[in-house]
Amino acid sequence: TNFSKKATESKRTTDNTNASIVDNKNNNKSPKQNKQGDNTAKLAAVAGTDIPTSIKKENAIDKAIKAKQETATASANSETTLSTKQIDVPAVRVEEKMVTDLNGNKSIVFDTTEFSVKMNVPVEKTNPRYVKLSEKDQQRAETKTGIVSNTLQELQGENNMVASAVPMPQNKRAPIKREVAKPAVIKEDNTNEKLSFFARFKNMSKQLYQKANTATIRIADKQIAIYPGMIVGVNASMFSKHNFGGFQGGLTALTPLNRFLSLSTEARFIHRNNSAYTVNDYNYTIKNMSIDSNSLSSSKIYNYQVDSNALGYNFKNFYTIQMPILLNAHVKDFTFYGGLNMAYGFRMDVRTSNKAYVVNVADTIATNSVYNQRANIGKRFTNNDFNSRFGLGYTVGGSYSFNPNLYLDLRFSNVLWDNAKTETKQEISSDFFRIPAIQFSLGYRFRKFDKRE
Fold first, then answer.
1. H or E stretch including 304?
2. I want to staple 429 with a disulfide (CB 3.0 to 4.6 A). Which of 168, 433, 439, 453 is the partner?
3. Residue 379 CB partners (closer than 8 Å, separation 6+)
4. pLDDT score at 408
């Protein structure tokens, strides 16, 4: 009882700013023990028995501890107090999954889900009336910026789970940071430097080669591979009075049908030399004509003075484009083919020569014979006879492959028909366009072709 009185007097006389906290021994007494003491006292009173002296002493001690705790609470109210508010914090949930593709291969993928977490955040409150402020705190109080307190930092240090915005997966693996790919920024080249012709040609060739390596066509919802290539070689005419030799070059494309057959098309530019062949034309104009019946008793002599003009059409070379469509049969490293050959002949670059002279001509005819006198003869050919033309023919031949890219080709081709209308145009076609020729070439495919595939 005396100890309780002393505790009460101490509560009344203790100043709020100088209150002291109870020692560690008294603080260690838990509220559960206090509650048990109070309950024991209540039970004793109900039963009508006297409260033991030991219990009375414990209750007195509990009251003293409670009084000192209230004093400490009052003293703590003079310092910075904290309250909390609830905010939404963005978070990410990471889930690990096992995925099996069509080929049976298993792989681990991570799926992320964004969500928000409700978190209580301390709010700092100050009561400057019960705090002895320093000069800096006094300035902050006057400007209403708040007093510095380490309580928030201590709370965050004790509760690390609150400070974490990203929950850890169940397997305790560290969350995977997924970096968002930044869009590529294309910098404009403001320099005035221009690429040379060879640099542009090199870049263009590289792009064409890459496209040729993956070329396909789509037929009936199926992707069919195309094997493009190029070809160069020499050629010569056959079974002709003129040897129009030259060279050729062009592009090829092959599409396999099965392991033994394929379909191919080409575009060949053929250059042929003329070898000094000239198309001659003559123009006759009769200036004077006389009949001599006295020189011979049984004959008449017809004398003509003719103004003759000789025209010559000459050209150094002529050009043709052949576009055959061929069906190929593959036997080991050999290929045999045949098909339709479409040909287009360009207009010939003709140069004309003119030579004029006077000729005296005499025709001796028997007196009783019928004679048709000579007449003026005009020129037959014109420059239009050497215009371009289109024709159809055939091509047969074979090739030998050294490897899937390189091969040798030997063929025989001929144009059988063309669209020449007049007699003189047809004569030019028969001499220069509709002539059989043999071609020997070296071919290269940009994409490897293996008939077994």
1. strand 299-314
2. 433
3. 281, 282, 283, 309, 311
4. 97
